[in-house]
């Protein structure tokens, strides 16, 4: 990620980070999942204003992701987790738009 961030620094969009620096982001894939699903749920609800049925339709239109996860774990886990995050948002902040 440092290389990616420093590419932005070359354009003066960010501050360069020395290559030996520890990343400020979450790098462990297991730790990233809850963050990712919360971001996905938030974007679906508050940026694109999708209701749950529309979000389900979008997630169901990702056959490559679905097939990969089904083969790997027997479940389309990200779909379930994103819908759960969406539901938490709807409960916490009121009805969908």
Percentage of residues in DSSP E strands: under 5%
The stretches of 5 or more residues where confidence is low (pLDDT under 50) are none
Helix content: 55-70%
How many β strands by DSSP?
0
Question: For the residues shown, what is the average pLDDT?
Answer: 85
Task: Give helix and strand order, one letter per element, not per position.
Answer: HHHHH
Task: Report how far the terminal alpha carbons are from each other.
Answer: 35 Å
Q: List the total number of helices.
A: 5
Shape: extended
Largest sheet, if any?
A: none
Cα-based radius of gyration, to the nearest Å: 17 Å
Structural class: mainly alpha
Observed structural traits:
97 residues, mainly alpha
Protein architecture, described:
By secondary structure, this protein is mainly alpha-helical. The chain has five helices and no strands. It is extended, with a radius of gyration of 17 Å. The termini are far apart.
Q: Care to give the gist of this entry?
A:
With 97 residues, this protein is an all-alpha fold.
Architecture blueprint of SSEs:
Blueprint: H1 2-10, H2 29-47, H3 52-60, H4 63-73, H5 77-93
Helix pairs in contact: 2-5, 3-5
């Amino acid at each position: 990620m440092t290389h990616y961030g420093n590419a932005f620094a070359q354009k003066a969009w960010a501050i360069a980070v020395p290559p030996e620096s520890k990343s400020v982001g979450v790098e462990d894939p297991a730790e990233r999942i809850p963050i990712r699903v919360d971001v996905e749920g938030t974007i679906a609800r508050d940026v694109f204003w999708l209701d749950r049925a529309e979000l389900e339709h979008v997630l169901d239109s990702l056959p490559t992701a679905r097939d990969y996860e089904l083969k790997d774990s027997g479940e389309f886990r990200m779909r379930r987790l994103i819908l759960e995050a969406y539901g938490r948002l709807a409960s916490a902040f009121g009805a969908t738009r």
